[in-house]
What we know:
By secondary structure, the chain is an alpha+beta fold. It has five domains: 2-70, Helix hairpin bin (Helix Hairpins); 94-325, DNA ligase/mRNA capping enzyme (D-amino Acid Aminotransferase, Chain A, domain 1, 2-Layer Sandwich); 336-405, CATH 2.40.50.140; 444-589, DNA polymerase, domain 1, CATH 1.10.150; 604-677, BRCT domain (Rossmann fold). It contains 25 helices and 24 strands. Ligand 5U1 is lined by residues 91-93, 124, 126, 131, 184, 236-237, 299, 301, 318, 321.
Amino acid sequence: MSVLLDENKKNLEQATKKIESLRQEINDHDYHYHVLDAPVISDAEYDKKIQALRHLEKQYPELVTPDSPTQRVGAKPLKEFKQVTHEIPMGSLDNAFSEEEMLAFDKRVHTLLGSNQEIDYVCEPKMDGVAVSIRYENGRLVRAATRGDGETGEDITQNIRTIKMIPLSLRGKQIPKVLEVRGEVYISKKGFDELNARASAQGEKIFINPRNAAAGSLRQLDSNITRSRPLSIYFYGIGSKPTGEIPDTQSDLLKAFKNWGLPVSPYVKQTKGMRGCFDYFKQMSEKRNQLPYEIDGVVFKVNSQEDQRQLGSVSKRPRWAIAYKFPAEEVETVIESVEFQVGRTGALTPVARLQPVFVHGVTISNATLHNMDEIKRKKVHIGDYVIVRRAGDVIPEVVRVVETRKSAHIKAIHLPSHCPVCHSKVEQIEGEAVARCSGGLFCPAQRKEAIKHFASRRAMDIEGLGDKIIDQLVDTELVHNVADLYSLKKDQLSSLERLAEKSAQNILDALQQSKDTTLGRFLFALGIREVGEATAKQLANHFGELPALFTATEESLQAIPDIGPVVAGHIVAFFSEKHNHKVIDQLISAGVRWPNIERKSQDLPLTGQTFVLTGTLQKMTRSDAKEKLESLGAKVAGSVSAKTHYVVVGEDAGSKLQKATELGVKIMNEEQFFQFLKQF
Ligand code: 5U1
């Protein structure tokens, strides 16, 4: 008996050793392959090692650990993604499109740092992918999240674990206890072509571009699907407060990333001043088409982390980094016809139907003409040869007519007198460029757009309820308003064209799930004119609950940062409509709910304090200072009165300074103001 036990123990010990050594070997090969781009063994040899490890782990399941290289298998499908609050908000980059804009950026960096030396910059390609934040604790991958709105993203850990280029555990020395790293997940041009070839062979929808394919792949509830997608990543920064030693320059940080096993772009380069940046931009512009993945510009970052800290961020945009974007692509084609599309608020947008042209991997057959004023200004006709521009994700637009190439048959473009969809009169308010259908929610086009907006990802996020289904639901009169969605029955949905029973059930499940939402999302989903996602969130934080908004006045709304008289007017008008209250009541009765919010604005450190800014500030612009104060809860007024708490004076301050002195209002100079802000 004891001989048998001894034997088992010996076998287990041997298996443990073998498993550990195989894992070490595989991790080393991963590192050589993905980080150093210098594989040491063939794919077949590598696969053999993985098989051997799998075999042993099957024999000894108790020895399986979550960071074993075999554990990249897809996990059980999720019902929904959990929310993740980013420890440090995930910012976005300011863009520059010209050397002048880059020079202005560099000048601002010099001014803010008070330096006249050339700045050290780190340059790297701007991957056209999807930003993610991945957290390692004690060197192990514990969580991964999407950017979301920058403050809160979705937990996509299961999906991220399936990407071979992302280490499940870090290697090397001096790994911080907690390290959150940020990078861009992308799909190579070749991977994208193969993915689309596969999709079209299977009769599935093809992806528009590699970025959309990467984003869609990361948002799969079933990580087995993500695993089948050719996703890659490059890391570029950190997203947690340092625990332990972190290199004090951006270039050393990226070197440390590589040592820790995190892939970094091979084109990272350190350079001096704008000359070096411009040379790098030129080199990358020339290389762009030969790269195996898409880039849409280059990124420059101030190398010193201390300087980065001093420069700080405004509105989640670091002032120490900038993306210099490649110019938008322009092509020539001809306008075959013009149609007017009716949007959610009834706005009529002229859309040019074009002779299809191929631009950077995408066929363009429509381009916006914006509005009638633009058509007049650009002197565009049907039949004209035109230059069309496509930049990133924005809708292609007609830039100008090709004067040197005239068509024999051109026709003028006229604004229709009646809505092309519901035939209500088209109205154009004087002084406004936009013409609108006067049909309101009687107009099916407006209703469809309102429902599409309601169901969209950043609003109620009703997965599977796509545009074509909504068009049919409105056309068949199954749905008149957004609340009707929640009374849909399975047989009604499956009676729609090309909607199988399983998809109908998925939509019902998604509708059910969407009922648990947040007040910010709900307000955004209502589609109040000019209330975007950020404003909706601000309203939610300010009022905390819906009934308080019903009675809000234009004045009280204008006290909220960024809400001016126009938006305040739209909000008040929306809540004074009886039929909007009816729809809201119906939604709440259907079970749509959200937690009330503690009124954040009341908790902010400068709530109730009024500031006036005057004169020229050297270290920040007046609008940056205003934004900073408002983010702390302060109100920034345009004139000094007895109600003013502080006046901040820059150079050449005039009458406001005098008035403040007369009224005995507290005065701060720029340096005192900076010291004051530092405490928050
Ligand atoms: N290459 C690169 N892309 N990218 C995107 N670096 C980089 N840095 C970013 C973003 C949003 O942000 C940091 C400057 C915070």
